[in-house]
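Protocol step 4 of 6: structure prediction from sequence.
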Amino acid sequence: MIAVEDWAEIRRLHKSEKLGIKQIASKLSISRNTVRRALRSDEPPRYERGASGSLVDPFVPRIMLLLKEYPRMPATVIAERVGWTHSASIFRAKVSELRPLFAGIDPADRTEYTAGDIIQCDLWFPAVPIPVAPGQAEILPVLVMTLGYSRFHSALMIPSRQGGDILEGMWQIIQRLGRVPRTFVWDRESAIGGTGKLTVPAATFAGVLSTRFRLAPAADPEFKGMVERNNHYFETSFLPGRTFTSPGDFNRQLQDWLARTANVRTVRSIQARPVDLLEEDLRAMIDLPRTAPSTGLRTRVRLARDYYVRVDANDYSVDPRMIGKNVDITATADEVLVFCDGVLVARHRRAWGSKQVVKDPAHVETAKRLRHEFNDLAHARAEKARHAALGTKAHADGHQVQIRALTDYDALFGVTFTTTPDTQQAATSGAITKEAR
């Protein structure tokens, strides 16, 4: 079974680079049947992650001490100094990961971008609390994406910096563009690739779109300096003098400003307006996928007795008839959907604040009815147990009737089965007399 990254790369090479199956198999050193299966599948392969940790981990403190004093020391020399005796490849990989933390000045040349190639992505946190609920305001992230060739800006405020929300925001922006860039450039945002390796949701997203993610080296903000500078431009040109009543109001003002100002101004580095180069940029991109990628927050829980599920610090009611069953939760920027065995059992508008309780009146009424039915049943069982203990029972009309012992009926009809010495002797002789009157 191939990894998600290999599956995504196969699809990118076939769709973006126009390579044939044989060429891809040769390039990636895998079989052609594996390539065919990856191209036929719109979903990533499932696999189990390997155990965490590395043989190099105990040596990291000593490696960092050497790099701090000698940032350019070769990995082979470092291995000799720290007494490394295992595989050289994993040691070089660890040194390459740590070296940027201690590297000196590294001047960056101006980069030339080709049409349709790169879009830089970042999260911008405007220092303006946005009202999200009565008496509650939050500083929310804004997903900013800038095309490398045309410098065309796209931006969208999203509910959180969780992976599902970021990927959903990216998908909304890509849908507006109508085409897919060949490369998404990200820093080491934890929900995308905080460890230097793509998260599974990000790799899946890239595979479905037949594109790729490129992660910036650690501690290197210049790697995506274009979008970083644009964030400063937003701070100084969009925010001053504006007030916002909600996330939706923020997004409406932002989209209007992008269309009227940011994307129609002349950019000095390219001596052109982004809106004028956008069409050329889009023509060089690839088509949207046949199926939409999986985005938003997704989880599965067993519905508890209080019939609420928690999404991003807020609670949402669910049909209480599903209590005790597994329910699947999908949260987009606009709504929260809950399914049980594929059937929709709750739909709510998503709350962007925290500690909010979102109720559906129908769920509350159903819970009230179920609670009454449960209490009635419990009362009937308790009454039945009480009557049994008292030796009484109730007729259908409610009046109680005492339950008599069987000996009372024997006395009523003059029947006795008690044994006396005389009857015992008669029984022995076969002359038992039974009084029936």
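Step 5 (inspection) to follow. The chain has five domains: 1-47, 57-101, 111-283, 297-363, 404-437.
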